[in-house]
Amino acid sequence: MTTLLLADRIRTMKNTYTWMAFLLILTAFFAGCGRVADSNDTQGTIQIKGSDTLVNAAQKVSEEFMKTNPGVFVSVTGGGSGVGVASLINKSCDIASASREMMPKEIEQANKQGVFPKEIPVAHDGVALIVNKNNPIDKLSIQDLHNIFTGKAKSWKEFGGKDIAIVTLSREVSSGTYAHFKEEVVNLGDSNSNLEFSPQTLLLSSSQAIVEEVANNEAAIGYMGMGYLSDRTKTVEVAKKDEFYLPDIEAVNNGKYPLARLLYFYTNGEPKGAVKQFIDFALSPAGQQQFAETGFVPLGVAGAEKTQ
Predict the structure, then answer these.
(1) Going by CATH, does the domain composed of 126-260 fall within 3.40.190.10?
(2) Highest CATH level, class, for 44-124+262-293
(3) Which of 196, 235, 257, 301 could, after both became Cys, cross-link 251 (CB 3.0–4.6 A)?
(4) Where are the domains of the chain?
(5) pTM of the model as a whole
(6) How far apart are CA 99 and CA 124, in angstroms?
(7) 189: left (phi over 0), alpha (psi -120 to 50) or beta
(8) Which residues does residue 225 pair with via DSSP β-bridges, in sequence order?
(9) Contact 176/53 with Cβ under 8 angstroms?
(10) pLDDT of 9-19, one tens digit each?
(11) Does 177 have pLDDT greater than 90?
(12) Which of 34, 236, 21 is nearest to 135 (CA)?
């Protein structure tokens, strides 16, 4: 009798485990049927750090990307190109945004940390010069700007303006725009020059801060990426020699604007997974449209090649 009861119990246990296993398989099957995998089936978080110039554009690209990639969250912070590059080197971001090229010493430092930067141009920009709307000056040459920002020129009267002292505004040293402007204007393109900004130059933490100061100070002049241009200030035409240009789409795209430049994303090696999807979107017509809507010049479809 005891033997028969034990046999029945064993058969019951086996049947129970069989049904449990069957139910688990069935549940997994229907769960899989309810979730369709496609090209956007990517999960994760992407950290973008760096350029203040690019922060609004990168945020807009990210918002559009996340609409079609809901499983990916993209976090964008500024602080300057130098901050982004440093974050890439110490592996605390997935993408560094920069308004300048990485310097050889930065690449060397990155390689020592096992980071191998991949440079990806994402848009064109023109470093714009702005003055107060009450300032009658509307044209300045690169040499004029050099004299102004090194302190050789003291008053707006020297350029046909009012007899008031010039107030020069600059981004901080971590800014890629600062580095570009210093090289092209303060040092006049001479890599061996050791000239610096005038000691009286005010260093401001963001491009928006420069806009605010110029809008409220008749004596001020500042520079920033064209994505921050507004009708609150006046944009100055700039010439390298005799031909003056505003930083508009045509002049920046054809290289006639003297302070035209490229803007970049940097990744650690070839981008993969969600990062590659994001980069591909940023270079696509839909992504490039976001750069255009934030005031920059798209690469164009011909230049917007996907990463391989």
Answers:
(1) yes
(2) alpha beta
(3) 257
(4) 44-124+262-293, 126-260
(5) 0.81
(6) 10
(7) left
(8) 127
(9) yes
(10) 434 444 443 33
(11) yes
(12) 236
